[in-house]
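Researcher: Structure for this, please.
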Amino acid sequence: QFLLSCNFGEILLMLVASLLGWPAPMLPIQLLWINLVTDGLPALALSLEPPEPGVMNRPPRRAGESILSWRLSFVILFQGLLVALVGILAFGLSLQHEPDHVDRARAMTFCVVVYAELFRALAARSPTLTLGQLGFWSNPQLLLAILVSGLLQVSVAVFPFTQRVFDVPAHSLGEWGSIILLALTPVTAIEVFKLISQRFASSHVRQNVGRML
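Model: Predicted structure, token format:
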């Protein structure tokens, strides 16, 4: 779910930019970096996630159910859409501010997408439970993977050699603030959606119990 939603978000970002007549919001080497480095480590760490509380109390999936169930498909599309949205905002706003500096707009989009996906890995730990309910420190491997991937991305954005390789101009402090703000948007939306879903499910259960009584 994490990797498919990452890839869907990147595809959607490139597609929307093309339909709007914009330049490519990210270069091939930037997309390759995202998929091989910054997505790979968190995805491996997610496989080490401890079992959720109460997992053995859940009914099994139907034998004939597809791997991509309707629920999982919705999660992939929803989360991929969030990543694409913040990428489009980063590219469009930067391009509007500096129309002659496409490289700066690409650099903003590159960093926003990377950090959005790293932060989103925290929400990918469970489809229903929030980070607070799971425990922030209960998967230290994931935290380490996010930290290492985040530092690798910082090295790309600040060292002159990697800046030239990835075509990433240096960011100002204000731009870094915008990057982090946009990157936190998807994980925040996902966690809020989980809370709303829990409240709705709890209300539905209380109504059913009330009818039985």
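Researcher: Any notable elements?
Model: The mean pLDDT is 90. DSSP finds nine helices and no strands in the chain.
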